[in-house]
Amino acid sequence: MHAYRTHTCGALRAEDVGQTVRLAGWVHRKRDHGGLLFVDLRDHFGVTQCVLLPGNPHFERLERMRVESVVSVTGEVVARSADTVNASLPTGGIELKATELEVHSEAAELPLPVFGEPEYPEETRLTYRFLDLRRETLHRNIALRSAIISSIRRRMTDQGFTEFQTPILTASSPEGARDFLVPSRLHPGRFYALPQAPQQFKQLIMVAGFDRYFQIAPCFRDEDARADRSPGEFYQLDVEMSFATQDDVFEAIEPVMHGLFEDFADGRAVSPAPFPRIPFADAMLKFGTDKPDLRIPIENCDVTSFFERDGVTFNAFKNVISGGGTVRGVPAPGAGALPRSFFDKLNDWARKEMQAPGLGYVVFEDGPEGLTGKGPIAKFIPADVQREMADHAGVKAGDALFFAAGASGDAVKLAGAARAKIGQELNLVEPGVFKFCWIVDFPMFEWNEDDKKVDFSHNPFSMPQGGMEALESKDPLDILAYQYDIVCNGVELSSGAIRNHRPEIMLKAFDIAGYGPDIVEDKFGGMLNAFRYGAPPHGGIAPGVDRIVMLLAGVENIREVTMFPMNQQAQDLMMNAPSDVSSQQLKELHIRVVEPPKETAKS
């Protein structure tokens, strides 16, 4: 018999009754029933109930032993009586009648209970993450993550993609987030950077002629934590293809994403391929965001022109419009039957959560002359304008129409958030479904209000639609790029692009964004030089693994699908990182630490 176990704790069934077996695992919980000691033994694979009868020589030791101690138990598999069968447990039809016990490790008093998974402070959970990971839900999520990554790898190799690894120590580049810097011992005063993404390397792999690349790539960005973003590192399915159009990328990725979600949907529906393609401008108009949740059956609209009509006297909106702003309408199906408190609650939300002046609204109902509006601002809008606006917005009797007004960007953002909020409040979010879409035709450039200059909107390595001709003849803010995002249920899973593989077009694009040839040569010289020796047209994408697992696991925080996450302050409480280092280590790296000035107490 094996020294530790002959079976796992999830393996035994009714057909094993009568066998003598050995199990190993953690003491999950204990129950003393009138002299009978029941012990649930747990390992990675499941739980098996063990029973010790009175007089068993190991009874007292197990009775005193703390839960989470690690033991091996040997005994006979017996069938449970009909009234004690646990139908919710795969091993619930049997139990192990224990005869031998070997203790491998006794547990100290637990700082964090495993059984029952009660709520505990995040600090405790992260400090004792090894205990937290024993809990069933988190343990299941991490196992799900592994299965998802295995499925991704299989699907990519089945499509002819080859996995390669790219460097972790590389050069710093201006990609939008802060780099993690690594000092060089051999080159004093110079630094490596951890890659924010393998962007340049995967393009160089295409230049090297490997054609179809993928990698489950670690990426490092020194940025603040969010619910869907770790503060230090994350993983993505990094993909690049040679001689590929935008359609080719979509056709390669859609089967992977659709098949992956179908495999792990657990009864939830998955939108069929091909996924809808929504131009960026349409997404901002209809949904107020470039990551729309298509489970919400609401489409926003621009109603600015209605408030410019003769006879409309709502000056708050007229002043916004005269100042260059806009007004967006957000339908609320069926809200007309709700009490005033519903509308007041949304107004409070807009003011407190969105720092907006509020949300105007009109409630529509049938009147003697047809559809008519009521509410605080309805009296400022003539009846014929109300009816035209309702028709434009697609609202009917019994519905309400909310208004988000302000500077263009602010109004769009508020309307998008209001759409999501109204969808939730009215229970309009379609349950049990994953709805995908592509967002396409992103603008190549945007206006940077802080620096008062044109800047890149997304990936600076993207090919502009129209190539050099567009860069030379169009207003930069009118140029579109071959850039695209894949979105599921309001979560951006990935950004991608067809790349700019022509050195002269790349230099021109960077010049428009204020980066001269010397800067481009300095920061991206390796890739630029490679393009001068023959580069294929190529493109790619990089879906986020962490966010995919979050969606499939049905959790809202990335820490619930990450094995060893940091806290909100980018600290690893379990390993005490970041930590101090010795003066000798600093000396070897030619580094001197300069402490930030301490704040002086106010007198």
Question: In words, what does this structure look like?
Answer:
With 603 residues, the chain is an alpha+beta fold. 28% of the residues lie in helices and 24% in strands. The protein has 16 helices and 24 strands. The chain has helices spanning 59-64, 122-127, 129-132, 136-158, 199-207, 246-264, 280-286, 315-322, 340-352, 383-393, 408-425, 467-473, 503-512, 517-531, 545-553, 583-588; strands spanning 20-33, 36-43, 46-52, 70-79, 94-105, 162-163, 181-183, 191-193, 212-220, 233-242, 269-270, 277-279, 301-302, 326-332, 360-367, 370-374, 400-406, 433-434, 436-440, 445-448, 453-456, 483-488, 491-498, 538-541. The strands form six sheets. An eight-stranded mixed β-sheet has the order 6-9-10-24-23-22-19-12, sandwiched between helices. Strands 1-2-3-5-4 form a five-stranded mixed barrel. Strands 13-14-17-15-16 form a five-stranded antiparallel β-sheet. The radius of gyration is 30 Å and the shape is globular. The termini are far apart. The relative contact order is 0.11.
What topology does this entry show?
Layout: E1 20-33, E2 36-43, E3 46-52, H1 59-64, E4 70-79, E5 94-105, H2 122-127, H3 129-132, H4 136-158, E6 162-163, E7 181-183, E8 191-193, H5 199-207, E9 212-220, E10 233-242, H6 246-264, E11 269-270, E12 277-279, H7 280-286, E13 301-302, H8 315-322, E14 326-332, H9 340-352, E15 360-367, E16 370-374, H10 383-393, E17 400-406, H11 408-425, E18 433-434, E19 436-440, E20 445-448, E21 453-456, H12 467-473, E22 483-488, E23 491-498, H13 503-512, H14 517-531, E24 538-541, H15 545-553, H16 583-588
Parallel strand pairs: 3-5, 6-9, 11-18, 12-19
Antiparallel strand pairs: 1-2, 1-4, 2-3, 4-5, 7-8, 9-10, 10-24, 13-14, 14-17, 15-16, 15-17, 19-22, 20-21, 22-23, 23-24
